[in-house]
Structure formats: structure tokens, C-alpha cells
Write a structure and sequence with these properties.
Layout lengths: L7 H6 L13 E3 L5 H20 L12 E5 L3 H17 L8 E5 L2 H8 L9 H12 L6 H14 L5 H14 L19 E8 H6 L5 E4 L3 E4 L4 E4 L6 E3 L2 E4 L6 H8 L7 H12 L6 H18 L5 H14 L12 H6 L1 H15 L3 H15 L4 E3 L12 H5 L2 E6 L8 H4 L8 E6 L7 H13 L20 E3 L7 E6 L10 H7 L9 H16 L2 H12 L2
């Protein structure tokens, strides 16, 4: 987790004297909140004030604490863990004290489901039942999935693995294809916490410097620390020198969930799953299907590190028959050659098939092979391309396109977004649904913030608590650093001595949970709130100083 980053104050220094200045009408540069978020905060704080009053905490409006709820990643485990926690926050009467709800990876799948309903927090019981009914129900029909994939393919300049991931895999987890957009949610959720979805810039992550943290809200998308934003409906459109050149469709909620939840795609098993789905997605003549089926099996063997040479030779034979004995792919492969040449061989097969068959799906499959080889995820036009402004790092303006991926690959919770000075958060409630060490994320956040010179609390956890965590930790804030309440999903209070058993039962990489597993996980997550209601109230009271 050693990340070489500059002092965050250096990133902000150039903008200090002109915080709200934009480089154009399309791109906003500066560290202030956008006007819509500022207005939301003004509207939300009286609700928070009344919520605290209901719990015997009295304060003037200017002293109302700004509380952010962070939900970590963790696939469907995180999705259900967040839902169970929110339901119990509602039942304990504490949900209305939350100003910001910030999600990463799998927890954003829960957020996307919730914010389909306007003012969902006022009717959470019925919203929860609708979500659970869907998750326990049948998968999306494959014809619907293919139709969605074709739509992505035909309407986007930068169709890539995230589109395939959204249609073929994320729809399996969430069991729906949500074509709504974030901009459509504007003004619909005034009684709910303000949602923030966090991802990272892949190129910045690889360089390990500057500002890889990207936040997405119903109003804007952009770089949290650099202070560069664009209207969320234009995030992905083509820009030059801060002005929009060409429209692209606004990403829908299915794609957003895939963009946020692509960390699991780092796993070889998931790459194999993509190949398996491709195997079932062919609507081509039987001769092509037989070749593609063998091609998929060949790539699956390669992913698993096994010898694909026999299958390559089988494909050569089939192509030779298809070509009437005139195929040029007649050289046999040995194991060494086959392992080295899987991608070129695969692309050559598609070229040969395209001579005989014409299909958008065949073209998609060819591109998928290329993207799997190059690992292209979340590619979008760069809204900062060639922006002429010293506040934007030169590296960020040079490329016409950027790749965005799951924030959990760097930090499995949205700390950086809520720690922006302009948000002035007083208390962070961290719900940790991570697999493995439940303190890794908060420790990583402390380390990153130290490198970035962002005020953050000291994080000191007994070593034995990594395997046998309690259900409630408080890391006291100081000066400008907010306090952090940290709640591990599986702990010795709600799981007894079976913490490891629960962790093993709910793996990140399993595709879907049974109805019984869903109910059990909702209950366990909810206990972390109900068991700690008084502690939560006590810590909020402490923040206010009453």
C-alpha cells in the first residue's frame, strides 16, 4: 500500500484564490461543492437536526454534525450487508441523521436498487421487500441480456469489457437490467442521504501518484482531489479543451454498477466466467457455433494455465472443413507455441469466420478477445483532454481516453470522497463488508491520508482482532479529522466463535446466494446496528459536545 503521492494541499494551492472558476461551460474546475449539492445539504440538515432531537440530542442548525456512512465493497455480500444495515438504521430511528451515503464496488449495487425509488428512506420496508423478492427470483432472460449487449455495442464509441461485464455478469448478480440514469434521479431523493459512487482512474492507479479517486453523483463526476468535474450526463462524451465535441449516451445504472463493481473481474475465475457466457451467447449457424465452442474451451484452458494445443489443432481441422480444404491454418501446435499464441490464434479464427458469416455478435466476441488480452475496462473519453489550465496535471490532459475501474482495487471504501475539505464531515460510520482482514481498509485509508496530508484519525487495532473482531470500534478524531466508527460485518458478537465459518460461507466470488443465505446475511448485518444503537447515539452526542 505504499503510494507515492504529493501533498494534497499542493493539488489545491493553485485554486485557492479562484475556487469556483470553470475553464468552460462544460467542465468545472475548483474545490467548491456544486450548487446542487450545496442546496441539498441546506435542505437535509434540518432533517438531521430533528432526527437528533428525537434521540435527546439538541443543537442549533449551525452545529448539526455532518455524518457520512461509508459502505465497503464485497460483491453481493456488501450489497446485502448494506441493505440489512440501512433497514435497522431506519428501525432505530437513526437513518435520517446520515447526510452522505458513499459506496464502493458491491455496496453500490444496493445503492442503485434503493435510489430507483424516490425518497426510498420513507418507505424502506417495502423497498427492501421489492429488492429481496428480485434477488430471490429468476435470472434475467438471456435474450434480454443479448439485446442489452447489442445496444451497448451499437450506441457507444468506447464499447469495452465493462459493457460486457454489465450485460453478462452484473445482471446475474442484481437480477435486473436497470436502464435508468443518475441524472434522472435529480430532485427525486430529497429525503434520502446524498449518494456518492466511487471509482478510480486506472492509469493513475498504475502510476501510483496524483489523484486516482473519482466520484460520481447525480449531478457531477470527476476527480475528488484535483477538483475537476463534469455534468454526470456528459461523463463519457468526447471533449477537447474543456468543451464537448461529441455526445455519448449517459451511462445507465447497470453500467454504473459494472464500473463500480469490476474488482471481482481481477479474478481468473471471473475471466473464465466471461468466456463461459460467451459460449452460450452464440446465435450463429451450427458450424460457427461448434468452432466457437471449441475456441472458448481453448481460452478457458489457457486461463487455467493448461495446454490448449489439442483444441487449437481441432479448430484448425474444423476451419479446414469449413473452407473446403483451403484453410491456411494448417500448422499443428505444440504446448509451448499454443500457450504463447492463444490471443493471436483466437483473433485469426475470428478473421476466418468473418469470411463466411456476418454478425454483430461475432464482431463483439472478437473485440472481447482483444480486450481480455489488453485488459481494457471502463474506457471513456477524457473530459479533461487538452484542457489548458495549470490546476489540471499535465498527465491527465494528454490522453483522449481514460480507463475507470473499481475503487476497491486501491481502497475498499470511499474515504477520499467524503474527506474533501468542502464536505466538512464530522463523523464517518464505516460499514466494512470486506473479505479477509476487516481492518485492512481503514488502515490503508490512514496510510493514504498521511501521504496526502489529509487529516485522519489514528488507527490502532489489536493484532488478534483481525481474526476475532468485535462489532464496534471508535477511532477518535482530532482537530480537523473526523472520528471514525468502524463496524466489521462478521464479528464475535453476531457470529460468536464462527466468524471464519461465516466468512467462508459468503465468498465474494460466488455468483448468487440462496434465499436462506440472503435472509441470514440481512439479519447478521442488521444486528450490528441494533446491538450498537446506544453507542452510535453516544458518539454523535460526543461530536456535538453535549
Amino acid at each position: 500500500h505504499d503510494v507515492d503521492v504529493p501533498d494534497v494541499t499542493a493539488l489545491q494551492a493553485a485554486a485557492c484564490s479562484k475556487m469556483c472558476v470553470s475553464c468552460s461551460s462544460d467542465v468545472r474546475l475548483g474545490h467548491s461543492l456544486n450548487k446542487q449539492e450545496e442546496e441539498f445539504v441546506k435542505t437535509r440538515l434540518p432533517t438531521v437536526q430533528q432526527c437528533l432531537k428525537n434521540h435527546g440530542i439538541h443543537c442549533s442548525l449551525d452545529k448539526v454534525p455532518k455524518i457520512a456512512l461509508l459502505a465497503s465493497g464485497g460483491g453481493e455480500r456488501a450489497m446485502l450487508g448494506l441493505l440489512g444495515s440501512l433497514v435497522e438504521l431506519d428501525k432505530t430511528g437513526l437513518l435520517d441523521c446520515i447526510l452522505y451515503l458513499c459506496g464502493v464496488s458491491g455496496s453500490t449495487w444496493c445503492m442503485a436498487s434503493l435510489y430507483q425509488d424516490s425518497d426510498w428512506s420513507t418507505k424502506l420496508d417495502s423497498v427492501k421487500e421489492k429488492i429481496i423478492h428480485r434477488l430471490k427470483g429468476p435470472a434475467v432472460g438471456f435474450d434480454v441480456v443479448l439485446t442489452k449487449l447489442m445496444k451497448y455495442y451499437k450506441e457507444k464509441d468506447n464499447f469495452n469489457l465493462t459493457d460486457v461485464w454489465a450485460a453478462l455478469v452484473v445482471s446475474l448478480y442484481v437480477k435486473e437490467i436497470d436502464e435508468g440514469t443518475l441524472s434522472q434521479q435529480r430532485g427525486r431523493n430529497v429525503k434520502d442521504p446524498f449518494p456518492i459512487y466511487a471509482v478510480i482512474d486506472k492509469q493513475y492507479k498504475q502510476l501510483q501518484d496524483r489523484d486516482p479517486w473519482v466520484e460520481i453523483t447525480p449531478y457531477e463526476a470527476g476527480y475528488s482531489l484535483t477538483g475537476a468535474f463534469v455534468d454526470v450526463s456528459r461523463f463519457g462524451s468526447q471533449f477537447h479543451e474543456g468543451s464537448k465535441k461529441k455526445d455519448q449516451p449517459e451511462m445507465d445504472m447497470l453500467y454504473l454498477q459494472a464500473l463500480c463493481g469490476s474488482a471481482v473481474a481481477e479474478n481468473d475465475n471471473i475471466v473464465a466466467l466471461v468466456w463461459e457466457k460467451m459460449k452460450n451467447s452464440t446465435s450463429l449457424p451450427i458450424a460457427a457455433c461448434l468452432i466457437l465452442e471449441t475456441l472458448v474451451e481453448m481460452n478457458l484452458l489457457a486461463v487455467k494455465g493448461k495446454d490448449p494445443s489439442d483444441l487449437q489443432n481441432d479448430i484448425r481441422t474444423k476451419l479446414n472443413e469449413l473452407d473446403g480444404g483451403e484453410s491456411q491454418m494448417v500448422e499443428k501446435s505444440d504446448e509451448t507455441d499454443a500457450k504463447l499464441n492463444v490471443t493471436p490464434f483466437t483473433l485469426e479464427v475470428f478473421e476466418r469466420l468473418s469470411v463466411h458469416f456476418s454478425s454483430w455478435l461475432l464482431d463483439v466476441l472478437k473485440h472481447v478477445c482483444e480486450w481480455l488480452a489488453e485488459w481494457i475496462w471502463g474506457r471513456k473519453y477524457n473530459f479533461l483532454h487538452n484542457v489548458k489550465d495549470e490546476r489540471v496535471p499535465s498527465f491527465l490532459v494528454e490522453s483522449e481516453k481514460r480507463d475507470f475501474v473499481d475503487a476497491g482495487l486501491l481502497l475498499n471504501a470511499g474515504y477520499i470522497s467524503v474527506l474533501r475539505q468542502e464536505r466538512d464531515v464530522d463523523l464517518i460510520i464505516s460499514l466494512d463488508f470486506s473479505e479477509g482482514d476487516p481492518f485492512l481498509t481503514v488502515k490503508t485509508a490512514a496510510e493514504l491520508c498521511k501521504n496526502l496530508n489529509i487529516p485522519f484519525t489514528e488507527v490502532d487495532v489489536p493484532s488478534e482482532d483481525s481474526t476475532t473482531p468485535k462489532d464496534f470500534y471508535v477511532f477518535e478524531g482530532h482537530e480537523k479529522a473526523p472520528s471514525v466508527i468502524h463496524i466489521p460485518l462478521f464479528n464475535t458478537v453476531n457470529c460468536g466463535d464462527k466468524v471464519e465459518e461465516w466468512r467462508g460461507k459468503y465468498s465474494t466470488f460466488q455468483l448468487s446466494y440462496s434465499a436462506e443465505m440472503i435472509d441470514d446475511l440481512l439479519e447478521v448485518a442488521g444486528k450490528n446496528i441494533t446491538n450498537n444503537k446506544e453507542k452510535l447515539v453516544k458518539e454523535i452526542r460526543k461530536i456535538i459536545g453535549t
